[in-house]
Design a protein that fits this description.
It comes from Pseudomonas fluorescens. The chain has 4 helices and no strands. The chain is mainly alpha-helical.
Length: 68
């Protein structure tokens, strides 16, 4: 039926949301590691310092600053 199409899709792919969450966690980890490799001058350009980066790289992978 026309109205049931979305529910069938959810039942067929129940872990889609989980895959997106894991991908986001991997991206956060990579971004945090990349921040740690930046030079002091590059950090100054974006308004951060080594203490900020140390704090950020020690956060847990599930701590997403964009999800409140």
């Amino acid at each position: 039926m026309k109205g049931q199409r979305g529910s069938v899709l959810l039942q067929k792919w129940p872990f889609t949301g989980l895959f997106h969450t894991v991908a986001r966690w991997q991206m956060l980890h990579q971004e945090r590691q990349l921040l740690a490799t930046l030079s002091d001058d590059a950090l100054k350009d974006i308004g951060l310092n080594r203490a900020d980066i140390a704090q950020e790289t020690h956060r847990h992978f599930w701590e997403d600053p964009l999800r409140k």
